[in-house]
Amino acid sequence: TDAKGSKAMVILPYMDNLNLLSKYLQQLVMESLGKEFDRDGNQVHQGITVYGNKGSTDQHAYVQQLRDGINNFFVTFIEVRKSRSKDSIEVDPGFNTGDYLGGFLRGTRSALADAGRKSMTISIPVVDAFYLGSLISLFERSVSYYAALININAYHQPGVEAGKKAATQFLEILSKTEKFLTDHLGENSSVSQVAESIKESEEVSFHALHHLAANRKNISLDIGQTPQDDKFVKN
Q1: CA distance 35 to 53
Q2: Last residue of a domain, one of 149, 176, 194
Q3: 3-state secondary structure of 152
Q4: Is the same domain home to 166 and 84?
Q5: Catalytic annotation on 199?
Q6: Known catalytic residue: 4?
Q7: If you ran DSSP here, which 8-state letter would residue 150 be given?
Q8: Looking at the structure, do residues 44 and 133 belong to the same domain, yes or no?
């Protein structure tokens, strides 16, 4: 990633039981490494974009771009040696579902390598509590080490806190908006009227009013020819 997050991290686990792994790693990596400042207070804008899904089926959604599109990623294949806890189903004479799963992984990896696209493969024998825990532990420690190498605090998350504060502010705006409609019970009110009264922007007031109209039985919406013409009333 050039220590600057210049390449995205693509996670392709080839096992149904690991279909949520890419979502977990997306949260782990992006929340931990997405930082504006380093430990010395320098503005660095660090981070690694993470995406992916179950390789056996969902790879078809993006492998075309991975092979032939912009080369701004690295792939991590997750291989499980034993594909099923029970016997695999025979698909063709002499070949079962596990054989095809292994073929898809090797074929995709080979196709990417032929196009000069970088990848690595992590193999585990089976999916059980021990090996799944080991896999998660590996990524968690890798994130911590990477954060130390690029001099950022992986455990400081002001962006998450900012989102929570913004959510609280919107709830306060909803309360002010509903109070305005209550004070003008039975009267049609426009977005601009509400915005001026509660001292918020028309955009914020527009979304607050539409949210209330969609989620409060006693607040209705009369859609106008333009958004500015929409009327809201509480009965």
Answers
A1: 25
A2: 149
A3: coil
A4: no
A5: no
A6: no
A7: T
A8: yes
Catalytic, out of 31, 140, 178, 202: 31
Catalytic residue among 4, 45, 60, 165: 60
Q: Which of 194, 187, 228, 226 is nearest to 209 (CA)?
A: 194
Express each pLDDT in 195-219 by its tens digit: 999 999 999 999 999 999 999 999 9
The answer on 230 and 179 residing in a single domain is yes
Q: Has 164 been annotated as catalytic?
A: yes
Residue 45 region by backbone torsions, left for phi larger than 0, else alpha for psi between -120 and 50, else beta: left
Most distant pair of Cα atoms in the chain: their distance: 76
**Residues linked to residue 51 through DSSP beta bridges, in sequence order:** 10
User: Using CA atoms, how far apart are residues 114 and 172, in angstroms rounded to an integer?
Assistant: 55
Identify whether residues 141 and 171 lie together within a single domain: no
Which of 93, 120, 149 is the last residue in one of the domains? Answer: 149
Q: Write out the E strands in 7-113.
A: 8-13, 35-37, 43-46, 50-52, 73-80, 90-92, 95-96
Is the pTM higher than 0.90? The answer reads no
Q: What is the CATH number of the domain that holds 18?
A: 3.40.50.10490
